[in-house]
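Backbone description:
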Amino acid sequence: MNPLWHLGNTTDVRLLIPGKPEALRDDADDLDAAAVRLDAVSEDARTGTETPSWGGWARDQWDHRRSELLTVPATVAEIYRGAAGALRGHADTLAWAQAGAATAVDLWAHGVDRSRAAGVLWTTAPPAAGDPVTDPGAAHRHAATLVLDRCQRVAAQSGEALAALLDELSAGMPDGQLHGNQFFAGVAAWAAGLADMLWRLHLVRAAVDHDGWLGDLRSEWDATAGVFRLVTDDPLHAGPVLANTEGLRDNPGRWWGTLAPDLALSAAGGVASGSRVLTGVRRLDELPRVPREWPEHPALNTWEYSLGWDPDAKLFRLSEYQTATRLIDQYGLRLERAPHGSHVDWLDDAGTTYDAMGNFDGVYLHRERQWSNLFDQLDRHIAKADIVPIDVSQFSAEQIATIRWYVQPFADRIYFVGEQ
């Protein structure tokens, strides 16, 4: 696929990554408002009289309709909330991707400037593998294309997940005829009368994908570590740009997209599916805790590699890298390696310091002397860091219980990670 817009002819991130996150969030707010109106219908039916003054056939019909009004609108409201959560998930993904595209634009521009300064006639093609890099800006432009490609792939994947979910949810909505698989089965008259009050989710889909671009971008997730690998003689500029891009690090599309099938299956389950959809929607709040895909051995000069790099000892510690990944997954943190001379392992966004222990075979804790050494280490870590993560992934339940007993006075400063 040869896109119309690329880094060589535009700096507009919304041409490189189509979509408006704020419009998606507005649509989500509208869906939430519609859900509130539907909740009111069920609430009115619940609080209204159960014994209306009329009798006979009319009263029987009211009893039937009242029972439906108690369940169906509330269920549809949860469907709407599920769709709203999906829209916000995709909005977050688009914002992430467009932030990455902005990084790509900056890298590309810097590469062009370096080439021009060197008097090199540059091209848009990346340098061929194995060829000597004679263009000082080529590596920057190549890195820019990799960053943009990754962001476009994720945005497309998220858009496809959203489209599939909204298609599934809208399959049961009234659109002039009732479908056999709809969750309005048995209440055709009521559904037709309420049609003007309901959002049609397939119209939301049309608004989201008005140009049909989502369907044209079929690509799988690209986990190439090369996005963060930049061979350049200008690391002071390019390195921090890549390493400090929060959006490139935390990919909402990877998380919410895995939730979309569950929401769709729950929504298709019938009138009784509301509680299951609600459970799925609540899971959206837990997405930052969903484990990401970590490389087993991170590539040199990547953010992942820095998590295990000890600047004081000048060596990479795989055990520290593993502990950092567990800490990030379990507590939803954003960590950076602490600088040389700080004598702690990591810092988070707020400047909180972390100094980890553990992640060794518990077989070594079999004598009193080893336990005494461990507790001494704990005391030293607690004295110099705000938070002490203890990786207990290789410890027994009894050993973990012993450590928990010892750190009780400092419980608010101890993070246990890796516990099975």
